[in-house]
Write a structure and sequence with these properties.
The chain is of the alpha+beta class and about 350 residues long. The chain is built from five helices and eight strands; from the N terminus they run H-H-H-E-E-H-E-H-E-E-E-E-E. The chain folds into three domains: about 80 residues, no CATH class; about 90 residues; about 120 residues, Mannose-Binding Protein A, Chain A (Roll), CATH 3.10.100. Helices cover about 50% and strands about 10% of the residues. Strands 1, 2, 3, 4, 5, 6, 7 and 8 form an eight-stranded mixed sheet that branches. Strand 6 and strand 7 form a beta hairpin. The longest helix is centred in the middle third of the chain and has 119 residues. It is rod-shaped and about 175 Å long. The structure holds calcium ion (2 copies). Pfam families: Lectin_C.
Length: about 350
């Protein structure tokens, strides 16, 4: 295929360079080996030979490619020659491409490595900043909590101040109440002293009084007796008059309690008339000496009820726990009389 190729001279072609009239000889295709490798530094004679052959072949291809008709001499056979030529040099072309890619990789590797380092450092910095941001957020939350605690403390302080003022006011009130209590105690002591003096005086007077009629008991200058006989209200009043007295008139709680204890000394379970009635005007109770009932009373619950329309006389109702009850004056009950000392 190289029969028509123009001979090419090369400074490394050696003695064969003189055979210009002879067509170039086809070279065997080399897949690999020292001729296909790229070497740097000192070139050996083999390397120089390889470079010479490559140069010559490149010149041949260049001439055919730049010819007027763009065709390799010989037409289709020429194109086949180019393809054959490229195919035969594929190992060399591959080596060249590999060299270029290696150079590119070698040149890009430091840059890529540097970028990776910078990205890694930047990523680390971002992580650190994120952690610091989280820390700042936590710190901000803590500060907010402290502020709220501070506000609560201020409110608590205000509340404590208010409580202190209230305590001072209460202390002043308590002091005033203590003074009033002390004054009342003094008054009570005075009253007790006066009462004791009066009791002593009354006792002295009672000792000077004549005695009560037989069967009567003296209490605060009056003689009382519970009769163990049953009479109507009016008959009982007549019996009391026989001792120059009347039915008993308990005008206060102490006298009322005394009379209850007096008739219970006769026995439990009996009711007793005493000197209260509304015989002159319904609902208007008065004592047998015609004096008004007054403020004190000891009515049983629901009494007086004038039950049946005919209850005008009052008794101690044993079934009502010794409380007062109006009843029919004609009924016969035991009774209590009172009289003055010295009377027969
Ligand atoms: Ca009545
Ligand atoms: Ca009644």
């Amino acid at each position: 295929m190289y029969e028509q190729a123009e001979p090419v001279r090369s400074p490394f072609s050696g003695p064969d360079s003189r055979k210009t009239s002879e067509p170039p000889q086809a070279r065997p295709v080399r897949q690999s080996g020292s001729r296909g490798r790229v070497r740097h530094g000192n070139g050996s004679s083999e390397d120089q030979e390889t470079s010479s052959h490559m140069y010559e072949e490149a010149e041949e291809v260049k001439r055919y490619a730049t010819s007027a008709d763009g065709a390799y001499p010989g037409g289709a056979s020429g194109r086949r020659g180019v393809c054959s030529f490229l195919y035969a040099r594929r190992s060399s072309l591959a080596a060249g491409i590999a060299v270029l890619l290696s150079l590119g990789a070698v040149g890009l590797a430091p840059l890529t490595f540097s970028n990776k380092q910078e990205i890694s450092q930047l990523s680390n910095t971002v992580e650190v900043l994120k952690r610091e941001q989280d820390g700042m957020r936590q710190l901000s939350s803590t500060v907010d909590g402290w502020k709220r605690d501070q506000d609560d403390t201020r409110q608590l302080s205000t509340t404590v101040d208010g409580l202190k003022r209230d305590q001072d006011d209460m202390s002043a009130t308590v002091d005033g109440l203590k003074r009033v209590q002390d004054a009342l105690k003094r008054d009570l002591d005075n009253e007790r002293s006066r009462t004791a003096a009066l009791e002593q005086c009354l006792h002295e007077i009672e000792k000077a009084l004549p005695p009560c009629p037989e069967g009567y008991t003296l209490r605060r200058g009056t003689c009382y007796k519970a009769f163990n006989t049953r009479k109507s209200f009016n008959a009982a009043a007549v019996a009391c008059l026989a001792d120059s007295g009347t039915l008993a008139m308990p005008r206060d709680a102490e006298t009322n309690a005394f009379l209850v204890s007096l008739y219970k000394s006769l026995g439990d379970g009996w009711s007793f008339w005493f000197g209260l009635h509304d015989q002159r005007e319904e609902g208007k109770f008065e004592w047998v000496d015609d004096s008004a009932l007054g403020t004190y009373n000891s009515w049983a619950p629901g009494e007086p009820n004038n039950y049946g329309g005919g209850q005008d006389c009052v008794l101690y109702a044993v079934v009502l726990r010794d409380k007062w009850s109006d009843n029919d004056c004609r009924m016969r009950f035991r009774f209590i009389c009172q009289t003055a000392p010295g009377r027969p």
